[in-house]
Amino acid sequence: MYRELITDVFFDLDHTLWDFERNSALTFERIFVDHGIDLELDIFLSEYVPVNLEFWKLYREDRIGKEELRYQRLRKVFDAVQYPVEDAVINSLSHAYIEQLSNHGHLLPYTREILDYLKPRYKMHIITNGFEEVQEKKLRNAGISEYFDQMINSEMAGVKKPNPIIFQLALNRTRVLPQHAIMVGDSLEADILGARALGIHTIHLNVHADPLHEHGEIIHNLSEIKSFL
């Protein structure tokens, strides 16, 4: 559908290519053992997954900072499951989590297949709100860094998706006009509406069971990109 129009494909990273939930679970499994946390991982994760999305939304909206995000999401979850943890332990867990998270390299289904398919046809780039110190390490440890020409992150841009400034920075750095670019991401708010505000085409990887919408194409697994590119 966009084959003759698009020259550059922008991807979000977490929840879009990099299997955040699986890698996150493996990280918590390890650091709970290291810190003597005697709590069933499934109980913790059932609370953590939605809480993490909630706090990332606050961070995206500049209502909390990086350190508050890292501390508060853990504090809220431990309080919710009524597992007593001192602040010093929370801070240690938070540090260990960030340090070890990017060591894991599991990807969402069809990631490597679709990157292999797209690589000869398009230039590919990453636009991420993730922390600069870990995102490049995620790409390297997952073995997919060589697919991408540019990685634009929110710390580099000074703003977070969906702010148009980060998308404009991406267009400037890649020297592509918005009508020749397409954004693939899991967040309707950050990736899809943010990109469309600048006239960038979009493909929404709907992994969070968002309701149907008319803000560009919707897919449910990465292999469906072949229908459009």
TrEMBL record:
<dbReference type="GO" id="GO:0008253">
    <property type="term" value="F:5'-nucleotidase activity"/>
</dbReference>
<dbReference type="InterPro" id="IPR006439">
    <property type="entry name" value="HAD-SF_hydro_IA"/>
</dbReference>
<dbReference type="Pfam" id="PF00702">
    <property type="entry name" value="Hydrolase"/>
</dbReference>
<dbReference type="InterPro" id="IPR011951">
    <property type="entry name" value="HAD-SF_hydro_IA_YjjG/PynA"/>
</dbReference>
<dbReference type="InterPro" id="IPR052550">
    <property type="entry name" value="Pyrimidine_5'-ntase_YjjG"/>
</dbReference>
<protein>
    <submittedName>
        <fullName>Noncanonical pyrimidine nucleotidase, YjjG family</fullName>
    </submittedName>
</protein>
<dbReference type="InterPro" id="IPR023198">
    <property type="entry name" value="PGP-like_dom2"/>
</dbReference>
<dbReference type="InterPro" id="IPR023214">
    <property type="entry name" value="HAD_sf"/>
</dbReference>
<dbReference type="InterPro" id="IPR036412">
    <property type="entry name" value="HAD-like_sf"/>
</dbReference>
